[in-house]
């Protein structure tokens, strides 16, 4: 092999290793970001359980909408009003089967939850499937939408 062929082979090998490394880092970063989104949800539910209204206000977009397990549509002002008035108290929230997918500055999180809560004196213990949408704006993630559906035949 002449010197030119050796240089081309080395350059191609270097390029291959570089592309492989970039791909590995991108996959690792994506996995880390997905774990961050799951942690955002765990933190959010912890804020509900501990009635941390300021954290929920900070981490919820102004145009937030939610569809509860009863099918009722609500928004951030109504959610905050209910929390401040103590109408709803989340006693516990166990999350499982979470799957996060990130598309640039938007993340879709799906999962399963067992929620024990009291609303206007009525305690409920329900299992739901949920989907939450997060958007990253100004360097921070905020919840913009949430939907939950009761699990049939618990």
Task: Write the topology of this structure.
Layout: H1 3-49, H2 53-58, E1 60-67, E2 73-75, H3 76-85, E3 88-103, E4 106-119, E5 122-137, E6 140-150
Parallel strand pairs: 1-6
Antiparallel strand pairs: 1-2, 3-4, 4-5, 5-6
Summarize this structure as a short list of keywords or feature phrases.
elongated, 154 residues, 44% strand, Nuclear Transport Factor 2, Chain: A, alpha+beta, single chain
Structure description:
Mean pLDDT is 87; it is low at 23-28. This protein has three helices and six strands; from the N terminus they run H-H-E-E-H-E-E-E-E. A hairpin with a 2-residue loop joins strand 4 and strand 5 (122-137). With 154 residues, it is α+β, with helices and mostly antiparallel strands. It has helices spanning 3-49, 53-58, 76-85; strands spanning 60-67, 73-75, 88-103, 106-119, 122-137, 140-150. The chain has one domain (3-150): Nuclear Transport Factor 2, Chain: A (Roll). The radius of gyration is 22 Å and the shape is elongated. Strands 2-1-6-5-4-3 form a six-stranded mixed β-sheet.
